Amino acid sequence: PTQKMPSTATALDFFQLFVPDNCIQNMVVQTNMYAKKFQERFGSDEGWRPVTAEEMKAFLGFVTSTSVHRCESVLSIWSSGFFGNRSIALKMSQSRFEKILKYFHIVAFRPSQGSNQGLYKIQPFLDSLQQSFGCTFRPSQTQVLHEPLIDEDPVFITTCTERELRKRKKRKFSLWVRQCTSTGFICQVSVHLKEGQGSDGLAALKNKPQLHSLVAKQLCQNISGQNTIVFTGPSMTSLSLFSQFSKQGIFCCGLLSTRKSDCTGLPQSMLVCGSAPAQRGQWRIMMKGSLSLISWYNKGHFRFLTNGYSPTKQGVIIKRKSGEIPCPLAVEAFAAHLSYICKYDDKYSKYFIFHKPNKTWQQVFWLSISIAINNAYILYKMSDAYAVKRHSRAQFGETLVRELLDLDQGSPTQ
């Protein structure tokens, strides 16, 4: 962390490192402006009154509570069913919450410039979030570029009933992150729409490798010359991208796939399997300048491209059944850092906000709030405040909901 938080710092204090009061006040102003514009066009709404900053915090608290209690609909808080939550429900009536939900906005009016940008309603918030991520934390040397799990992804869909699957709509955006492999802190976020006429739409790009290369450049634009080692999956790994990163002083290590990767410029002899049977733990290396192409065999051929590790240094992969399998150091490092991120995805999913709005910009907003809460907990665990209370992830989430709703710390949230 770049600043030392006091031992008395609350969950809300850590959250507001990323979503400060001025950001919440902007939501209040924009929501009231949109409500006024909407009513001028479609007729007055007698049940509406301008929202306040206190109500906006409570609104965020209500929606965030769906991540703590795993309920699909935020409106179930006011029901008498299993997810009914009387202690929270007393803070605001359901009708008032629905009014705020109806008019909630980050940007009420389309800007005159760049009006084709599909994410204009959320972009100022994303820019603010990116800046706060960079200002509050210095990540480790090793970082990963990847797509984090979202609750519409296959691992979550397998647990859904057929009725729930019918209700789900296909997500219209893709999200990539640059994540610290030592702590799990998400340092930067890149969002792209899957449809649309604007420059942020996938239709503007010819193929996926071209898009993923663009995403990688965006995520790494602030780390040139910082001695960072970036790990990438097959969709991002390419000779052209790694060559550009080398010129910027960014070191790389990526897994290659003949199906998913852009293999332009790579020697064909390294991309095809040899006729002679390979033994487990064997590898071949070809070099060009500082870049090394490694073909390693372990029940199949795995290919890696790197300029961050010496190809002559040996590492080892430890398997429970097979014991130690020799490999280049780059392969050992890739496996270690990627496996940490896979384990970390499970922790990060604890803060999924399950509220599902229809509008894409709102889906991106609540996903961004989930990431902000995730980062807030990481900073909390590294602070003196953790030594005082030692909250688990679930306890931190519940405490944050109580503080957003301005409830007494002793009152239950469920």
From TrEMBL:
Entry GO terms, CC: nucleus
InterPro entries tied to this protein: PGBD (IPR029526), PGBD5 (IPR042423)
GO molecular-function terms, A-Z: transposase activity
Organism domain of life: Eukaryota
The PiggyBac transposable element-derived protein domain, residue ranges: 11-377
GO biological process entries: non-replicative DNA transposition
Transmembrane segments: none
Protein name, as recorded: PiggyBac transposable element derived 5
